[in-house]
Design goal:
This protein is α+β, with helices and mostly antiparallel strands. Helix 2 runs antiparallel to helix 10, helix 11 crosses helix 14 and helix 12 packs antiparallel against helix 13. The chain is 52% helix and 17% strand. It is elongated, with a radius of gyration of 32 Å. The chain has 2 domains: 190 residues, no CATH class; 181 residues, no CATH class. The protein has 14 helices and 12 strands. A 6-stranded mixed beta barrel has the order 4-5-10-7-9-8, surrounded by 4 helices. The protein has a two-stranded antiparallel ribbon with strand order 2-3.
């Protein structure tokens, strides 16, 4: 059966080669396209998951309106406002932090947690001023909470515990200030007070927009700078299983008035972009399937039409309908299998080459080359798509060939 399948494919070499090339290009295109898109997504997701907490617990933002004071002053609800209340509370203090510490320490799903305090400040160096954020962390706990240490290209997070007011700033923020490591600059808090701080490190995350406002200091330093002794604005939580972040955050939010937000909720806009990219990738996959399917269908359909006499002879000497169907399915599988294998090999080699291309500009380590994913799922999916499309496209011509009756073919001849 295999010999007959190969013989019929060799009978029309031009169409066979063109279809074979189409399958190779389809498999190669899927591997390269998916590798590029998923490589970018994986690196961004790794940054979102490992450079920040999986879940953040903070004071809930409250918008004040008429309903806020309903039945507060008068139980009958007969309060009349000359000017209706409006606005948003600006308190960032997390009042129940100690309760959360106890609860998190007893939850087996929690790997680590850390109190944090974030304040908006103005960084000043001579005549240069840059607004930004100063994030107060506990270095020993922050190392367990995130992988931010990998992004610190000069210094270490533990340098914040050396004593005194030490800060680690984003690369772009340093560039705008014209400052260097070891230099002392000033931080202006919201009350206008100016505090000297020493730069002990540089962090590079690959995003200039983030780096232009990013600063780290010890929790005590930020509390002193902002005049918020003992205050905590956020409790960051790292889970043992990051996939549980959304469900655990919803569970905790059910028994507290505090804001409990998972990393998925905080990065909805970025994840929506990934959804669009996946949609484009799936549409591309569908296009590849159609190209491969039509190519195989056309060549086998022509073979069936041109080989009716041979099919009639095979049926006359004892081949059953199922044997004829299997014969043409073999031809489709031969094209799909060999084309898919060669396409995967070529796609892998192209991805290897693309991963060596250096991106222009001063990119951080890990982002200075094209991000390519080599997940085995990509190659398995590409192989199954090519073989599946081959079987599907081969079935209809094969079924038509199996239905040919020898006597009808002889009469037509």
């Amino acid at each position: 059966m295999l010999f007959l399948a190969l013989k019929q494919l060799r009978a029309r070499p031009r169409q066979t080669i063109l279809t074979f090339i189409a399958i190779i290009l389809g498999s190669t295109g899927y591997v390269v396209f998916s590798g590029l898109m998923l490589g970018f997504q994986d690196r961004i997701l790794d940054s979102l998951i490992n450079n920040d907490a999986h879940i953040k617990i903070s004071a809930r933002d409250q918008v004040i309106d008429r309903e806020t004071f309903r039945e507060v002053f008068f139980t009958d609800g007969g309060l009349k406002w000359a000017v209706p209340p409006s606005g948003k509370t600006d308190s960032t203090k997390l009042n129940g932090a100690q309760i959360w510490y106890q609860r998190l320490s007893q939850d087996p799903r929690v790997e680590a947690f850390e109190p944090q305090l974030s304040r908006q400040v103005i960084y000043v160096r001579g005549r240069f001023t840059v607004p930004g954020n100063l994030n107060g962390v506990v270095p020993t706990k922050h190392l367990k909470l995130t992988n931010i240490e990998k992004s610190i290209v000069n210094g270490s997070l533990m340098d914040l515990n050396r004593g005194g007011a030490m800060v680690i700033l984003g690369q772009e923020l340093l560039n705008r200030l014209g400052a260097r490591v070891g230099e002392t600059i000033h931080v202006v808090a919201s009350d206008g007070t100016k505090h000297p701080v020493k730069i002990v490190g540089i962090v590079r995350l690959g995003s200039r927009m983030i780096e232009a406002t990013l600063g780290f200091a010890s929790l005590e330093t930020v509390q002193n700078v902002s005049g918020s002794a003992g205050e905590v604005s956020v409790v960051g939580v790292r889970l043992k299983d990051v996939s549980l972040a959304e469900s655990v955050a919803q569970e905790w939010a059910n028994y507290t008035n505090d804001k409990v937000e998972s990393w998925q909720k905080a990065n909805e806009s970025i994840l929506s972009v990934f959804f669009t990219q996946d949609l484009v990738r799936n549409i591309t996959t569908l296009t590849i399937i159609l190209v491969v399917s039509f190519g195989i269908y056309n060549i086998l359909n022509m073979v069936v039409n041109q080989k009716k006499k041979e099919i009639a002879i095979l049926r006359s000497i004892g081949y059953s309908r199922s044997d004829v169907v299997v014969l043409f399915l073999y031809q489709g599988l031969l094209l799909g299998f060999t084309g898919a294998v060669l396409g995967l090999v070529i796609g892998y080699l192209i991805c290897q080459y693309l991963s060596t291309i250096t991106l222009p500009g001063n990119q951080p380590i890990g982002f200075n080359k094209l991000l390519i994913s080599f997940k085995y799922q990509i190659y398995i999916r590409a192989f199954l798509i090519s073989c599946g499309a081959s079987v599907l496209a081969s079935y209809f011509p094969a079924r038509a060939a199996g239905r040919l009756a020898p006597i009808e073919v002889i009469r037509q001849s």
